[in-house]
User: Fold histidine kinase from Mucilaginibacter pedocola.
Amino acid sequence: MRKLLLFKFSLVVPFLLFCASLCAQQNPIKPAFDFPTKEVYDLHVDKHGFIWIASDFGVARYDGINCVHYSNPNQISLGCSNLLEDSYGRIWFNNFNGQIFYIDHEKVNLLESYDYKKEGNYPRMVLFGNQLLATSDHGLFVLDTKTLTGKYIGDSTYTSSLAVMSKQVLIRGNNKWYAYNGTPTLKKLSYKGDDESKGIVYALANKAYRDTAYMLINPAGVVKKLVLQNDTVKQVSQTAYNTFINTITITPDNQWVNTNGSSYSLNTGEEIKGLNLSCTVTDMEGNRWFSSLYHGLLIQYKKDIAHKTTIPGLDADDLVVSLRSYKNQLMLGTQKGYLVLYDPASNKVNFKSKLAAIAAPINNLAWVGGDEFIAASSVATYRVNALTKTITELTSIKTAKQFCYDSEKIYIASTSGLYVLPRQRSEALNKQIAATFGNALKYSEADNNFYLRMRARAIAYYPEQAALFVTFKNTLYKIDKTGMNPFLFNGQPVYAASLAYLGHRLYVGTISNGMLIVEQDGIKHISVQNGLFSKSIFKLKAVDKNLWILGSGPLQIFNTEKRALVDDYEFPDRNASEVFDLDGVGQSIYMVTSSGLDNFPLVKSTGDKKLKNYLLYVKVNNQAVEESTARKLSYAENNIIFNIGVPAYLKAKDIYIKYCLATKGDSTWQTTEPGERSIHFSSLMPGKYTLKAIAVDPRVGEAGSVINYSFTIQEPWWRSTAFKLALTLAAALAIFYGYVIMLRKRLALKRAFDTQQQLILSERQRIASEMHDDIGPGVFAIQNLANKAIKHENAAPELHQIKTQVVELSAKIHDVIWSTNVGNDNLEMLLYYIHVQIEKLLEPTEIVFDSELPDEIPAIKITVQSRRTVYLLVKEIVHNAIKHSQATTIQLRTIIEGDKLLIAVNDNGVGIDAAQAPTKGDGHGMGLGNMRSRVEKLNGELSIQNNHGAHISIKIPLDELRVVEFDKKLNKWQSFVAKLLRLPADV
Assistant:
């Protein structure tokens, strides 16, 4: 156990000493981040700006926030090197077991055309145009990076290292030299230089510097410079480093020889000691990255433009907490309660005074015109004259928060209330102040000030509106001649933390809603949608014509002339949350920070410092997909993560993503938290979407391009057009099938019905024929015999009765034959029969009969029962008139009124007393009640009126008389279906 502790201690102590030595430097090289290994072999900055790292843990990509490690299931070892990037954006590398891989669309692929199993060493690789070249025991391996097809050339010539020159590649192997210029063969070269027997390992740097190749020789620790002249490799010079050489790194503007003791720049002479480096690269921000075989991944950040300002005579443990510019000097308030006038040009303190015996920090400091300042500590407020160095305590005002002024008044917002201080005692001025603010403020004669005892936080006077804007308990109020009223924006109260008046406009920094600009003609809202970094603004500070915004995000400048946020200034590498106050003197900005007073030049940025942002990958339901396959997603694929890559390293955690998931009806922009690179959407509804995203760096603004990614989440299968069509088709087929079944049943029923009707009609016709042919003549013969018998003398009286009954029976038989006869089953025959029978009924009487028939009688087939009922109804009415009316005239009228049959029987007799009329049959017919009952069965109407006789009318719907039967023929559709299904044609 003791040995283990000693071993761990032996590892930790050197590393701590190393870190301490780095921190001692002004711009130190230090560990970049918590990388999982201390053995890093190679680095590469790709065309997008991402850092690629090759180590004994494999290959990783770093963007300043996320470090993504890559591997392949067929990878037999993790340790790798030789990072390259081809023109298609693929990253190539090899491991130390000889396998070659490339990363394309976030996936690691094994290059199977390079047979590592036949190799004795791992390859050295270079890119030459659109070709990847790799050394081999069997010649030179050449891969077309467009088609990814490879081949070996050189007749199995052994190759071990190579260097890319301007027009060809220099190759070495087994003390032999070759050149490759894209042709299918290797060109042999001769060598002119020192003896090459000094070392065991000879390796060319994979890049030449201005057509000068570099070769290292180990263990001798020698570096040779080589040039190619015609067909000869010529040694230009050599340098002995007398230690093991790790690598030679060639950059566009430098060459580094990395030994296990130090790294040497051949261009600048710079030496980096004791880091055992293997590679050096510079990112697009100007930071330098180093890979070390002992210390892992290291970084040297570019020099910050901010400088520490040391105030002479200030205690070492005292800090500046507030400041204000004054005649090219700075009035400073310190943590210990000192007021200091500092001249940056001479680096001298012109005066230093403690405001009170109690050490209380001067948190707020404001110039209020001339040589006067208001200084506020956490317990008291003071009026200071910088010229005379006099300090007067304002005893009634505690803990002032913000100040403003005009030529006649000073305005103070404090924890004890709102105060307006006239610069002189004047009754006229006091009346003016009272009227200006609608007598909302009280006047103190003793202190010569106006006050309102409400805790105030921020204050600003807006002369164009002659109004004072004050924040009471975070709610903004406007005080003018109308009095004190809440200030509203979009009908809602405004919660303000800071106010500033500049350039005829009032600026309002809100608690959580960005910034408002109050103008004479309205209010403008500046929010994250307009490029504002902070939703919460703590302080607004006017410096010349710029308004500095200190909020929850980094520093920003609002140009009051352009009326827009600007991002073309170089800012120091500092979080805005660490800045408490700032002001400008000359061309420099001084910032009060948590670590002291800093200054930096206010100059515009040079060069293109626009951010670059990329959509690295998309995960759908936590599965990575390629962009081409992510365009259309199923209904269940509705949880989507977008990973944005932003290669930025200096202050990567300050950078955030502004994004919008645009739909047809919504395009609201949102922001991620600073440092966050993933955007997650869950449970998205079906529809078309476009992700728009752009990275925002508080120091340099937005990225140069917006990421756009369109995709569609399809409707679920039960809502898809195909399913709806299939469902509609199935429903149509079901309906059609049901219709066919119904039609078949209908046709079968019709056939059965027609057959039954035919049988009934045949039977009726048979009965009518038999009664007419058999029974009728028989009855007529009996009637003749009765007539003859009556004529004999001594004829029995019963013969008369027999004759009468036979006559009545004959009439009834005639009615039955008429009713049964199929040929009479229509309305026309009914009406004519009624007319004839009534006429016969009245023949034996002296009553005059008048009959009226319709001109046109519809061809309606009526039922036997309805035909008989109507006939008996009319016969009974006429029979009653003959028997009881004493009439001399009877009129029968039949009329067709629309869909009804009207039968009217009128006489000129004594009329009918409905109350006395018989309601039941009297042996000769039916009574009035039975008559009504029969009419009701036909859904008809019976009307009886007396007007110089009886007027009886019956109104019967024709549909009640009509025979209910199937359609005589099918419609066109039914006929088509019947023909299609080959149904019987007689339907």
Notes: Residues 1-25, 918-926 have pLDDT under 50 and may be disordered. DSSP finds nine helices and 74 strands in the chain. The radius of gyration is 57 Å.
